[in-house]
Write a structure and sequence with these properties.
Blueprint: H1 3-16, E1 29-34, E2 45-50, E3 60-66, E4 71-76, E5 84-88, H2 89-93, E6 106-112, E7 119-128, E8 136-142, E9 144-145, H3 150-166
Antiparallel strand pairs: 1-6, 1-9, 2-5, 2-7, 3-4, 3-6, 7-8
Amino acid sequence: MSRLVWLLTVGIVLMFSGNALAQGDASVYFVTYFSNNVTGAPDATVRIVNDGDTDDFLYPFFFVFDDSQELQACGYCQVSPDGILSEDVKTELTNNPVTGRIPTRGVIKIFEFYQESGLHGWATHIERATATSGAYATTEAPLADSNLSFEEWESDINLCYYAQQLGSGQGTITCTPEDRDF
């Protein structure tokens, strides 16, 4: 059984065994955006911290959508208690899209697979300094807390599973090991 199928099975069992889904500020589900994901622009970064409250490894699951709301890539990483995970948008989150076309802008959804609280995150955003110059500015902001319904969780997991199965290796993100961040 593949690790993704195993994670899906365990996650569904946990969902039905009484674990509640995140409601807003529970540090379980987040969204952010990326833009100017183009040649010549700096790379945006998503950073995830495990606050160590549970003394467990946490598994942030990334879903990358283009600006047409189509899933381009997905997968999960691991972050240890009190650890930090740093993922580059260009080289790890959008470099292997299921469509074969790298998105220039879109949405990144992140949730802790087992619905354990303790994740916190920030993302850098690449913005054009002016409409006519080739210069870019980089800003950083916290990931936006969001509400996650069971239907959305189930839909995203199914989309990921089918995208990776049908994509024959396309649509999978890569993760940087924690000790190699930055």
